[in-house]
Amino acid sequence: MNVTFLGTGTSVGVPAIGCDCATCLSEDPRDKRLRVSILVEYDGHSILIDPSTDFREQALRAGIRHLDAVLVTHSHADHVFGIDDLRPLNYRQGAIQMYANDQAWKGLRRMFSYVFQPPTQSSQPQIIPHTIAGGVPLSLCGQPVTPLDVEHGNMTVLGFRFENFAYVTDCNLIPDASCDILSGLDVLILDCVRYRPHPTHLHLEESLRYVERLKPKKTYLTHIAHDFRHAEVNPTLPPGVELAYDGLKFEV
Question: For the segment 173-191, what is each residue's pLDDT rounded down to a tens digit?
Answer without folding.
Answer: 999 999 999 999 999 999 9
